[in-house]
């Protein structure tokens, strides 16, 4: 598990633990999309700071020129690095 995957998993675990502590069987479950949106926000927030492997991948992919296609390509390379299996 990469550092980024661990960071995102921990953020989700903490959110889920808070829901479980605050829930009770007599309350109707909310729309699953409410939690899905929260999970998405939690994961994106956890990914805000790149890991060293992500930075290395971004540096390797960056061409050092002012190319409008550069940013998305670098972003994808950095996310690919975060998703790599160790």
Characterise this structure.
By secondary structure, the chain is an all-alpha fold. The chain folds into two domains: 1-49, no CATH class; 51-86, no CATH class. The protein has helices at residues 3-22, 32-46, 52-61, 70-83. Helix 1 (3-22) packs antiparallel against helix 2 (32-46) and helix 3 runs antiparallel to helix 4. The model has no long low-confidence stretch (mean pLDDT 79).
Short description:
With 86 residues, the chain is mostly helical.
User: How is the biggest beta sheet arranged?
Assistant: none
End-to-end separation in angstroms reads: 6 Å
Rg over CA atoms: 17 Å
Q: Helical element count?
A: 4
Overall average pLDDT: 79
**H and E order:** HHHH
> Which percent bin holds the helix content?
55-70%
**Count of β-strands:** 0
Count of all domains: 2
Q: What is the overall silhouette?
A: elongated
Which stretches are low in confidence, meaning pLDDT under 50 for 5 or more residues running? none
Beta-strand proportion: under 5%
How would you classify the helix and strand content by structural class? mainly alpha
